[in-house]
Amino acid sequence: MSENAVIELRKVGKWYNSYHALRDVSLTIKKGEKVVVCGPSGSGKSTMIRCINRLEAHQTGHIIVNGTELTDDVKAVEKIRRQVGMVFQNFNLFPHLTVLQNLTLAPIWVRGMAKSEIEEIAMMYLRRVRIPDQAHKFPGQLSGGQQQRVAIARALCMRPEIMLFDEPTSALDPEMVKEVLDVMIELAEEGMTMVCVTHEMGFARSVADSIIFMAEGTIIESGSPAQFFENPKSERTRQFLGQILEH
Amino acid sequence: MSKDSIPQSTAALAASFEEEPSQASVTSLPGGVTALKPFGWARNNLFNTRLNTALTLLCCAILWFSVPPMINWLVVNAVWLGTSDECRAAAGACWSIIVVKHRLIFFGTYPFDEQWRPFLACALFVAMLGVSGVRAFWRAWLAGAWALVLVAMGVLMWGGVFGLTHVPNDKWGGLPITLMLSVFAITLAFPLSILLALGRQSSLPAIRSLCVGFIELMRGVPLVSVLFMASVMFPLFLPEGVTVDKLLRALAGLTLFTAAYLAEAVRGGLQAIPKGQYEAADALSLSYWQKTTLIILPQALRMVIPPIVNQFISCFKDTSLVTIVGLYDLLTAATVATTDPEWRPFFAEVYVFAGLMFWIFCFSMSRYSQWLERMANRYNRR
């Protein structure tokens, strides 16, 4: 395993029955690195990111997160999930719990933290995502943008070393995208290791250390934003950029 | 977005009523106008087409011919406190049979002079059920109170201590049997059904097929035969000399049967939970049981309160089938009351009364479930 790598994928393969979703995906992400993954739908980018905390199980190859290899061993999976936060496209907040309860549930039950202690930390994160006044509301009473910011705060309350974002702004109304991206940019500035599946190319250009372009279950191209946007190597990338940057 | 969804939705509901002048405003408008409104409403809703006019007239005719005789039988011509001879002479219902036989109906063959004991036990039990339904009392002490009440009920029913004579439970009957069988069966079946529903979704094939097999077996067999099996066949498998109480065997049969049906209701709730809820819980590193008890079940059970209570009500009424294994529930005790030759002609009154008793308990459950549903889903909006 290479120096400083916190996430390493080696020739990872995955099938859904006969459908080959990931083909020999290899990737190394260093501590503090911000990686944006893009590509057309069905390219395997969500599958790949979901393999990193084993919401999906890979079938061939190796995935090593923070020095622990992901296998069927439940202990290893739980250990990695404690270190990896995830934000979903559809927020997936727990609707029967208040915002504050959403944030404190896992730290209390998984990390065994005292309620008063974690509630203070949770309020700190809610202030950082700028919705401390919503702490005692239920998710259903919040806007999409607010819900996604709660979801980010919920993941952060577990004090993760790595954050995974699976299309965090795709389900949002356009006017709410910015408030979520602003929070993510702040997080990036603090040095969080981030892997983000997104089509927000402005975000990618300004925040990412490297951009990965996937299609048909493989990584077609990866490089710095400058190289990726100004001088893409493959024809497939140029075509994708042409489509996505047209507007 | 919405600041407070509940007041808003009630306001919307109220608004929708106000928009419908034909309904709500009939009662709300002041004096003079009210008199005119019902006619307008009737014209618009009951006599607006030829078919509706015909149906309205038909319904009126049915009511005209059925309701007055019913009221005459139930109330006007009824005998309330008379002798059986007065009853025979009267054209109405003979409620004196209830007055004369009520202790047999309520307490069955329990020794007559000791019947204050089952009465007290039932009163305690019903009071405790009532207390348990109030949200403000959902505290740790409630469990302790239940333990005390159950011990007190056991002492009252069985006796044998504190100078109470011993009454073996084959002498029990009537309301205590119905209440205890149904409440204990429901209380035991509910957690069992949750385990069965979870097991049915398990990724372990052995557990899954065991649960599916049990549920399908119980659902495929009439309750009567389950009770027979529990009562007659089960003892055959026990070693010589070991006996399990008849009441306990019936309770076990009723519990397993109810659990199978409840499990299917619970499974409906589990299946309605979006996949994202499981994934979010997994991503937070919650264990299976943490995920299930903290995230999945609280949402799933709220969704299936109506079918669950439906099964509770069904179970309550199913207790009347334990008569086939020789237990005297409320309905059986009522039937026994009609076998007295002096009062034999008045069995209908006894059944009406027994039906009323069942209805009171079932209707209470139904009303309670409506309140529970409103309370539980108050904030559960997506």
What is the gist of this entry?
The complex is a heterodimer of chains A (247) and B (382). With 247 residues, chain A is α/β, with parallel strands linked by helices.
Label the overall shape of chain A: globular
- Give the C-level CATH assignment of the largest domain in chain B: Mainly Alpha
Count of helical regions of chain A: 9
Taken from the alpha-carbon principal axes, the silhouette of chain B is globular
GO cellular component, one term (chain B): ATP-binding cassette (ABC) transporter complex
Protein name (chain B): Amino acid ABC transporter permease
Membrane topology (chain B): Multi-pass membrane protein
Keywords (chain B): Cell membrane, Membrane, Transmembrane, Transmembrane helix, Transport
Structure description:
The complex is a heterodimer of chains A (247) and B (382). Chain A is α/β, with parallel strands linked by helices and 247 residues long. Chain A has a single domain, classed as Rossmann fold (3-Layer(aba) Sandwich). Helix content of chain A is 39%, strand content 26%. Chain A has nine helices and ten strands. Chain A has helices at 45-52, 74-83, 99-109, 115-128, 144-156, 174-189, 201-207, 225-230, 235-245, and strands at residues 5-16, 19-30, 34-38, 60-65, 68-69, 84-87, 162-166, 193-197, 210-215, 218-223. A six-stranded mixed beta sheet of chain A has the order 6-7-8-3-9-10, with helices on both faces. In chain A, strands 2-1-4-5 form a four-stranded antiparallel beta sheet, with helices on one face. In chain A, strand 9 and strand 10 (218-223) form a beta hairpin. Chain A is globular and about 55 Å long. Chain B has 382 residues and is mostly helical. Chain B folds into two domains: 2-72, no CATH class; 106-376, MetI-like fold, CATH 1.10.3720.10. Chain B contains 17 helices and two strands. Chain B has a two-stranded parallel ribbon. In chain B, helix 7 packs antiparallel against helix 8 (140-158) and helix 9 (175-200) runs antiparallel to helix 10. Chain B is globular. The two termini of chain B are 12 Å apart. Chains A and B meet through helix 2, strand 6 and helix 3 of A and helix 13 and helix 14 of B. Chain A: It comes from Azospirillum griseum. Chain A: This is Amino acid ABC transporter ATP-binding protein. Chain A: Residues 7-241 form the ABC transporter domain. Chain A: It holds the Pfam family ABC_tran. Chain A: Belongs to the ABC transporter superfamily. Chain B: Its main location: membrane.
